[in-house]
């Protein structure tokens, strides 16, 4: 019988310790005085639900930002390809002009 009483005493002490730790983790609001075990567990459940909602919103925002990043990356790649194309057209025109300039003399004031 005394062994059982000792075990029960330890169990209750462990439970009190866990409830005290929980009290330190859960925001209790203005009425942070003495709470019943039920009210503490209820507040802990609500706090966990709030944290889960925040996590869901954060994950959703991360997904949105990743989609936006991929979209912007594709746009950047398109602009880079467009720039290369424009640069190559410009250099082709430039070399064509220099080829034609070599064979002809300017006609300014020749009349």
Automatic annotation (TrEMBL):
Domain of life the protein comes from: Eukaryota
Entry keywords, A to Z: Coiled coil, DNA-binding, Nucleus, Transcription, Transcription regulation
Locations listed in the record: Nucleus
Coiled coil (residue ranges): 48-82
SUPFAM superfamilies associated with the record: HLH, helix-loop-helix DNA-binding domain
Alphabetical list of InterPro entries matching this protein: bHLH_dom, HLH_DNA-bd_sf
Pfam families recorded: HLH
GO cellular component: nucleus
GO molecular function: DNA-binding transcription factor activity, RNA polymerase II-specific; protein dimerization activity; RNA polymerase II cis-regulatory region sequence-specific DNA binding
Domain called BHLH: residue spans: 1-51
Stretches the record annotates as Disordered: 87-111
Protein name per its UniProtKB record: MAD1 protein
Source organism: Leucopsar rothschildi
């Amino acid at each position: 019988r005394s062994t059982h009483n000792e075990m029960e005493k330890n169990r209750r002490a462990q439970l009190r310790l866990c409830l005290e730790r929980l009290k330190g983790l859960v925001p209790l609001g203005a009425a942070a005085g003495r709470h019943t075990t039920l009210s503490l567990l209820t507040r802990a459940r609500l706090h966990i639900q709030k944290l889960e909602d925040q996590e869901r919103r954060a994950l959703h925002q991360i997904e949105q930002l990743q989609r936006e990043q991929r979209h912007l990356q594709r746009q950047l790649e398109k602009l880079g390809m467009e720039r290369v194309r424009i640069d190559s057209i410009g250099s082709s025109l430039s070399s064509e002009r220099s080829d034609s300039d070599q064979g002809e003399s300017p006609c300014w004031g020749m009349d």
